[in-house]
Every structure is written in structure tokens, then in C-alpha cells.
Amino acid sequence: MNELVATAYHEAGHIVVAHCVGLKVQYVTIIPSDDYLGQARSQTQHEKDNNLLLKFMNYDIPDDMSVEEYDENINRIITQDLLYSLGGYVAEKIYGIDNTIGASSDFKGVVDFALAHYGSADDASLEINKHLLKVEEILKDNWHYVKSLAASLLEKKELTRDEILQLLEG
To answer: Who contacts 52 (Cβ-Cβ below 8 Å, separation ≥6)?
Structure first.
């Protein structure tokens, strides 16, 4: 399997999942850098989510939010991030690519986060499996978009937000 093709499908998987779970896609590239063979960028849709994440990292519940609202929002943001992080890994699996460095690295990051966040290995494993199934469903339902993005990436090497949205929303 050509490394560039594998990278294109990997990054396309990230972008399709990001778009489907409500993340704001920024750009995607398969031009290698010192650290990556490719890169997909997305961010939360709202500045409020970004601020909430910063507070989460500092264990700080905002004054204008109940504990329940806070937990609900943090869980949504974490779920979006885990699904997004698994997008490349699952796209490679669906396409039939075995264990690239990017997919292995993404999966390790998910496992490390899940272990830290959920506590026990059993809980982390359950959450990861649940998220893997959801990502597989998203990508299989939207595989035509993955193929379209991968083909465009192979042709152009990088896509802007507008180009991505044109492919995803037609």
C-alpha cells in the first residue's frame, strides 16, 4: 500500500468524523512535516467550548454553570475528541490498511487518555470499544465522502476549510 494513499484515507477519516460530530474543520494536508505524514485540523464549534476545556484542564467549574451542565458539556467535548481521534485509525481499517504509524499513534493517544479519564482498564476498554463502533458507523455511512476527500488530497495534497466543506456539503 502506498504511504501517500494510506495517509490520504487516514486524514480523510479524521475530517469526515469531525464534520459529522459537529467539530469545525479547518484544513487537511498530506504534505509530510518533521512530525507527521499528514495532518487534519479541527476545533470545537464555539469559543465557549474552548473556554470550558481550559477550565476542565484546571478543574474549574464556571460560575454560570451547574455541575450537571458542566459534566454534560465536558462529556460531549470529550466524546467529540475521542471520535475524531479514532477517525483516521478506523478509516484505515475499513480501507484495508494495516497499522500505519499514524493510526498506531492516534490509537495509543486514545488509550492513554481513556485510561487517565475513566480510571480502570475495563472502563477505558468499554469506552474505547463504544467509540470505535460509533466511528465505524459514521465512516461506513459516509464512506463516499472519505473516498472523495482522499482523492482530492491525492490530487491537491492539501485542502482548505472551504474546499473541504464543498466536498462534504456539495
So the answer is: 62, 70, 73, 74, 77
Stretch (H or E) spanning 149? helix 143-156
Give CA–CA dist 98/1, Å, rounded: 9
Which residues, including other chains, have CB under 8 Å from residue 60's CB and lie 6 or more apart? none
Give the whole-angstrom CA distance, residue 122 versus residue 118. Answer: 9
Question: What is the CB neighbour count within 10 angstroms for residue 148?
Answer: 16
- Give me the CATH topology for the region 3-169: Methane Monooxygenase Hydroxylase; Chain G, domain 1 (1.20.58)
Global pTM? 0.87
* Three-point CA angle 86, 4, 146, nearest 5°: 45
Decide if 154 contacts 5 (C-beta within 8 A): yes
Residue 2, SS3?
coil
* Integer Cα distance of 66 and 137 in angstroms: 33
Separation between Cα atoms, residue 114 and residue 94, nearest integer Å = 23
Which H/E stretch holds residue 39?
Answer: strand 39-43
The pLDDT tens digits of the residues spanning 109-162 come to 999 989 988 889 999 999 999 999 999 999 999 999 999 999 999 999 999 999
